[in-house]
Design brief:
Strand order of the largest sheet: 10-11-9-8-14-15-13-12
Number of strands: 15
Distance between the termini: 25 Å
Helix content: 10-25%
Largest sheet: 8 strands, antiparallel
Number of helices: 6
Structural class: alpha+beta
Mean pLDDT: 75
Oligomer: single chain
Strand content: 25-35%
Order of helices and strands: EEEEEEEEEHEEHHHEEHEEH
Length: 286
């Protein structure tokens, strides 16, 4: 597995289902490529940070519209889930989106991801007790390989979430991103009521498994990788799950090609705990 690089060649931006492209220059000599259409939200990506504009959508009403044009009226709003999986396929980044049985064809979502310079293939759709799961295999259009840049992975995640908020505004009360640009913000105070959990486990002689569970927010994936690599720990692969107000990350990590020794595990956990500190934070056990 290749080490995730924090060096970003471009600054990413997107809106959803858009047809117009605009390049803008800002102080410091960098350019932002953005895709905007109408009143849809714009996201701007820069190294180590994701910024966004605040856009208010109309409050959700029943029936609920879907991308496929169908409607349904359901009292209980399911928990939205977006999973970015770097482990299961050596050649592609696998993205899975679940929102009960409310998701349509997700054609606008696929189009928005293509605007980020990605090839998107719809792998499969399956049903279980938690709802309909939509899985996509994603590669970079320029290389045909899986996505390894953490900034582009975060762009993928936020693109999907914002499209979900647009077509299913009732999901905003279930997502941490609803605070920023949802129709109805979550009732829980995301930064206060959700504790952070950090664990590091041995995963063979050549790598360790880092598990982080914390309150979600824009830019979290980029910041987690930055904190890890700042102490010279390599991120080889992993999975990043957005599940309602929670973000759950599993990273395979190593130090100089070997599993992380106990003292460095403690340094890694302390660094992440300091960055992700909340009023209630569980101490990790090793």
């Amino acid at each position: 597995m290749a080490v995730v690089s924090m060096a970003a060649a471009r600054i990413y931006g997107s809106c959803f289902g858009s047809k117009s492209v605009e390049n803008q220059c800002f102080p410091g000599g960098f350019s932002v490529r953005r895709f905007c259409s109408g009143a849809r939200p714009c996201l701007f990506y820069s190294k180590g940070r994701v910024s966004y504009t605040t856009v208010k959508f109309p409050h959700a009403v029943a029936p609920t519209a879907t991308e496929g044009g169908n409607s349904s009226k359901i009292d209980t709003v399911p928990t939205p889930k977006v999973i970015i999986d770097q482990d299961s396929d050596p050649d592609a980044t696998i993205v899975e989106v679940t929102f009960g049985d409310r998701l349509g064809a997700l054609l606008d979502t696929m189009h928005a991801l293509k605007n980020l310079g990605l090839n998107v293939a719809k792998a499969n759709v399956y049903l279980d007790s938690s709802g309909k799961h939509n899985k996509f295999a994603i590669t970079k259009a320029s290389t045909g390989r899986k996505v390894e840049d953490p900034e582009l992975l975060e762009a993928i995640r936020l693109t999907i979430i914002n499209n979900l908020l647009q077509y299913h505004p009732e999901s905003s009360a279930q997502l941490a991103m609803g605070v920023a640009f949802g129709a109805e913000p979550p009732k829980e105070k995301v930064d206060v009521d959700i504790a952070t959990h950090i664990h590091v486990y041995d995963d063979g002689p050549d790598r360790s498994l880092l598990y982080v569970e914390t309150a979600d927010r824009p830019g979290l994936l980029v910041d987690l990788v930055r904190i890890i690599t700042d102490i010279n720990v390599a991120v080889e692969s992993g999975e990043f799950d957005t599940e309602g107000l929670l973000a759950k990350a599993k990273f395979h990590v190593s130090y100089k090609g070997k599993a992380i020794i106990k003292p460095l595990q403690q340094v890694l956990a302390n660094s992440l705990r300091y960055f992700l500190r909340r009023p209630i934070t569980e101490e990790a056990s090793f």
